[in-house]
Design brief:
Blueprint (H helix, E strand, L loop, with lengths): L2 E9 L5 E2 L13 H4 L3 E2 L1 H7 L11 E6 L1 H10 L6 H21 L1 E4 L4 E4 L2 H20 L7 H11 L5 E3 L5 E7 L7 E4 L15 E2 L8 E5 L14 H5 L21 E2 L2 E2 L8 H5 L1 E5 L5 E4 L3 E4 L16 H23 L10 E9 L1
Parallel strand pairs: 1-15
Antiparallel strand pairs: 1-17, 2-3, 4-8, 5-6, 7-8, 9-17, 10-17, 11-14, 12-13, 15-16
Helix pairs in contact: 3-4, 4-5, 5-6
């Protein structure tokens, strides 16, 4: 999984609603639903929908043969019903469900402990598969019976949609969106108050403020995985030895330097002077921008655990990717700033989005 920040542009006159009571810092299990979302916008919902990994409207269907369900149906519907195979498959499905139930645990809010299911609870868990296999064994199962088909689906199919062809082959339908970049998102989220330098909420109305740079300490500009385990008190007390991953040395060809089959490191990220050194970065760094005009545009493809394509690039390629992205973002902002109403006010505002992939 990964979280990354993107900026979407919605019309200023959109009837979006900002939730002034939203605060990620104050969110907990008790208030997360009552607190609501940081912003509501139908325009934004539709703008982001084509890039959802799981939205059926934008996905291609990928049929996958369900071998076990197919074997059961073909044995059951064969010209001379293969009773032995039907019984074998029924027993296999029952034992599979039993195994899952025996490994299932339940949480007790009273004792604050997890425990296994009781024999009675396991028996309850097995009731659906027992009812279905009874139909198969008795020869009364009927695919044309809606109740029977629903029982079959709930017990033996692992997807919401599926198909059964004339040869009694069962295909589970998986959906894949080639342009899917997120599976859920939140306005604000980990990037709540993203625009705090210039605005009090998660909507930046003057998008010209997205441009420009700011100064930060070098420590706050290294890759996230280079600071794993580093705490605020470590920084304050200068307890930095072995707390920050050192950078790997490369030769003139950009290849890692090895000694005894191990990568050679330097002290770049553990030198206190460099940790205190200020560097210039983009005022608002974002991994993607989403507009109605150009759709989804991104600096590089995101991967798992907060990594992206940039993490395997050479230093030169990484610098080129970043500079090209900065230029593109500024170009998009400049273009949108020219789209004004009769009073000369830009028609677009920016919304910070916490995407999850």
């Amino acid at each position: 999984m990964s979280h990354f920040v993107g900026v979407a542009f919605i019309p200023r006159d959109d009837d979006y609603e900002v939730n002034e009571d939203y605060s990620k810092a104050e969110q907990n299990l008790d208030n997360m639903f009552s607190m609501g979302e940081a912003l509501q916008s139908e325009y934004l919902t539709e703008l982001l929908a084509p890039y959802n990994e799981q939205d059926d409207r934008y996905c291609e269907v990928s049929p996958d043969l369900n071998d076990r369900a197919t074997t059961l149906l073909q044995a059951y519907y064969s010209p001379k019903r293969n009773t032995e195979k039907v019984n074998e498959m029924c027993e296999m499905f029952i034992e599979r469900e039993r195994g899952w139930a025996e490994r299932t645990t339940k949480w007790s809010a009273e004792t604050k402990e997890s425990s296994s299911l009781s024999l009675a609870e396991i028996s309850t868990e097995l009731e659906p598969i027992m009812a279905l296999t009874k139909l198969f064994r008795s020869g009364t199962f009927d695919l044309d019976n809606e109740v029977h088909l629903e029982m079959f689906k709930k017990s033996l199919i692992d997807t919401e949609d599926f198909e059964i062809n004339d040869d009694y082959q069962v295909f589970s339908h998986y959906y894949y969106n080639d342009e899917g970049y997120w599976d859920w998102y939140e306005i604000g989220g980990r990037w709540d108050n993203y625009f705090s330098q210039d605005n009090a909420n998660n909507v930046l109305e003057d998008i010209s403020l997205l441009k420009g740079t700011r100064m930060v300490k070098k420590l706050h500009n290294v890759d996230w995985f280079a600071t794993v385990g580093l705490k605020d008190e470590d920084i304050e007390n200068r307890n930095l030895d072995n707390k920050v991953i050192k950078s790997w040395k490369k030769d003139e060809l950009g290849e890692f330097i090895l000694e005894n089959d191990k990568r050679v490191v330097d002290e770049y990220y553990t030198t206190e002077e460099l940790l205190d050194e200020e560097v210039e970065i983009k005022k608002y760094g974002m991994m993607s921008i989403i507009t109605e005009q150009y759709g989804w545009e991104q600096e590089s493809q995101m991967g798992m655990f907060g990594t992206s394509e940039k993490d395997v690039m050479s230093d030169d390629d990484k610098a080129f990717t970043e500079s090209s992205w900065d230029k593109l973002v500024d170009e998009r902002i400049d273009e949108m700033l020219k789209d004004v109403d009769d009073n000369g006010v830009c028609k677009w505002v920016a919304v910070a989005v916490d995407f999850h992939i």
